[in-house]
Amino acid sequence: MFKKLFITHIFIISSILNAQIGVGINTNSPEATLHIKMKENINYSNAISVRSLDQSLKFNLDGLGLLKFGEENSPVPVDVRINSNSSVIKVGNTSLSAEEAQAGALRYKFESEIFECSNGEQWLVLNYDTPPDHLIAVNNFKKVLIPNNVYTKLTGWEVKHESRVGDFINDTYTVPVTGMYILSFSVFTNMIQQPSSSYFKGEWVKIEGGVETPIIQAKNNFLSSGVYMLGISCTGTVRLNEGDKIQARVIHNSGDGRYLRVDVNNNAVAERNFNSLSIIRVLE
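Structure (tokenized):
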């Protein structure tokens, strides 16, 4: 009885000491908290294998270091397919530089909705065929009066094309995603006598707390008098934050009110497509 107790105590003490080093499977000298030594054979026996009741593979780590989920005979180092036709892998963002993350690292920028790959020196955007977020609008039929020396918001826009853009309500655009944007509009007025030393100015403005602040400006000066069709193109690239509200507006000092040139009777094709507006988000 004493001999059995003594042997049991030795076994318990040995197990405690061994557990302090680690737990070994197929090895009496674990070198980690959990050390699994595979049985050596020409078939590269599996280190870890998890299977369902029907023996289909769920998870496997074999002797070559190949990690597999669901695919039995995949030759690649990591295969995360549930089966040959189903795969899901999630990549997160990182604040590491491309050099710190090292070449081959992947990240997903949530705010820009793009994948990037590190080449060890810089983050490169992975190519894809999806067009950038954009909004393209025209005003072919709605006259807009632009009084003399008064900032006038451009209205009457009809959206022709759009892709995941913010709200464009009452001709005010709400930015959906923080990023770089190319803003552009071109408008022309009816033909009329123009005094000398006059101008026509266009602006993109950001609206904050009811205050309109110009962020892009363009100006055409008319040094001599004559019959002119006033025109202005206002284009630029700016960084905008999610939730920013922007508008397009114009002003002139011609003395009389001016109307945008449009097809009032809906039948004069020659009077269309003078006035256009576009907003395009640039991939960073």
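The CA atoms of residues 134 and 280 lie 4 Å apart. The chain has a mean pLDDT of 83.
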